[in-house]
Amino acid sequence: MFIEIAFENLPYYVSWISVVAFSICVHEYAHAIAAYRCGDDTAARAGHLTLNPVIQMGGRSLFMLALIGIAWGAVPVDPSRLRRRYGEAIVAIAGPLSNLCLALIAALLYILLSATPAANLVDIACRANGTLFVLNMLPAPMLDGWKVYAAFVPAMNRVSEKQANTASLVMLLLVFVTPFGGLLWRAGEFIAANMVGLWLTVLAPLLGS
Description:
Radius of gyration: 18 Å
Helix content: over 70%
Strand content: under 5%
Shape: globular
């Protein structure tokens, strides 16, 4: 179990917990601010315009993060109050895009801090956020990708609650019981590596290479 890492490699355990908690909070904040700007202040009134993990994640999620290294957040959104066209898709994609931005920032910091102990932390942040982006963009009802794709594929909005729950369960099993989870992590690493490569190209004149 993930918590065993705390006894084997405490720095990595603390780094992972910190990175994932912060990344989820940014992800949920992005949902909340996007909803607010699209006309729905439900999340704002519930206090979700914050990076406080207790609010954005909750005690159960934080406990699971410490125990198994995986957690979640949930921002309340009222689709009927969204004024913009594709409002649900805009709010949904805001979260994954925030993870992509965090991965990009972490990639830059990895280059700048490569000779320091902080390099390990930002390396974890880059790979973790790349993976969070890929995971959340999967077409599963419980994930943001579903609402993004549903904006362009109307039939997805006609899926019943039972069908949605079944699809979500199947996705969970694929991620945690099959090698598919490893593929997600490798996809996140691919994104991270390419972002580092992008920054190296951009910074090449300044780095003298």
